[in-house]
Specification:
transmembrane; 2 domains; membrane; 226 residues; globular; mainly alpha
């Protein structure tokens, strides 16, 4: 069987290839340069991907961590000082109690808004919690300034609690139907949010605290994996 002879490279092709090389450059150097350029492009792509998955700022996790830590702190306070909260400010522990409560309310509002923007808690539930807890912030903040619970606190406290409880339940149902959060996390959100303030003397705020810490963990995970 006859073998085909190697086809000679046309003179024009040899001239073109020679023109691509700089004077005094070895042909193997061009191949090495091409490999380096390809590796550089791949590295730049990896960097862009990592930056894309990295959280934009600590603002995405600080509210969730703050709400979680404050809620668990409230539960620990109730365990160490059993009994219903008193409307007095006779010691530093009383300021600590209301300070933790105020931090929990403010951080929960911010965390709810961010969770809705990120698509974790779609629907109107986040806004209900924000409005309800906003009313409570006014009353609790005034109590810290006046060093006593204002007489008009009930006017804001009752509708604020009702709106917040309805918001947590709504957010949990919508998120579960949309498959945004696991089932057990849905229970933390619904039950924990419903009883966070209603039965705070029993330390129930630990449930909603665990939910917010889980949320912060979910936001930080893509940055670690990238």
């Amino acid at each position: 069987m006859a073998t085909s002879a190697a086809r000679p490279i046309p003179r024009e092709g040899r001239v073109r290839r020679a023109a691509d090389l700089r004077p005094g450059q070895d042909p193997s150097a061009r191949r090495c340069s091409s490999r380096v350029d390809a590796a550089t492009i791949v590295a730049m792509t990896d960097i862009e991907t990592a930056v894309h998955h990295r959280p934009d700022s600590l603002l995405r996790v600080v509210p969730s961590i703050g709400a979680g830590v404050a809620a668990i702190g409230m539960a620990l306070y109730q365990v160490l000082t059993p009994g219903a909260p008193q409307a007095t400010f006779g010691s530093a522990l009383d300021f600590l109690r209301d300070g933790l409560f105020l931090l929990y309310l403010v951080a929960s509002i911010a965390a709810m808004v961010l969770a809705r923007r990120q698509g974790l808690l779609p629907g109107i539930g986040a806004w209900l919690v924000g409005v309800g807890y906003g009313l409570l912030v006014i009353g609790v903040g005034a109590g810290l300034v006046l060093q006593r619970d204002p007489e008009w606190f009930g006017i804001l406290g009752l509708p604020g609690n009702l709106l917040a409880m309805a918001g947590f339940i709504t957010a949990a149902i919508v998120a579960w139907r949309a498959r945004r959060i696991p089932g057990w996390v849905t229970l933390l959100l619904a039950v924990g949010g419903f009883f966070a303030v209603l039965a705070t003397e029993f330390g129930t705020s630990v449930l909603i605290g665990c939910f917010w810490l889980w949320t912060a963990r979910g936001v930080l995970r893509p940055a670690r994996e990238s």
